[in-house]
Amino acid sequence: MTTEDLVNVLVPRKHLSQVYGLIAQLEGASAAPTATMDESPTTSDSTDEWTPARLRTMVEDSGPAMRDILRGLALRPGEWLTTQDLATALKNKPKADWNTIAGTLGAFGRRVKSRYGLETWPFQVKRDHERHCWIYSMSREMATKVLALLNGK
Fold this sequence. Notes:
By secondary structure, this protein is mainly α. It has six helices and three strands; from the N terminus they run αααβααββα. About 45% of the residues lie in helices and about 10% in strands. A hairpin with a 4-residue loop joins strand 2 and strand 3.
């Protein structure tokens, strides 16, 4: 993206974090499940797409921040976690916030699409309209597989 592709937009401060989150989702749109503000992204942890070989490659290709996010999701299977919950899982970034998570997931989404040829993530994503944020959850089955890979088993 060049500077010619960018424009300045004035946003009320109270909506800034939501706008950043939406931009992160849109930037990952070609690689990540997308949604409008009123519908949930289509995501899956289908073992049909996320084969053991793809999962192994995903973990191997992931940097420390994405591995921490995967571990954070896998350690709390079935729970819906906010970006702030995920930010606290980042070991080497004590000042991480939702923006750190959005950037990491945006890069992950592009990798999922371009390297693995998939449209889904190995965890679920949906919009929490009450808290005005995106939330994430990994199934117990996927969590078991991901933790085994993260732990080198």
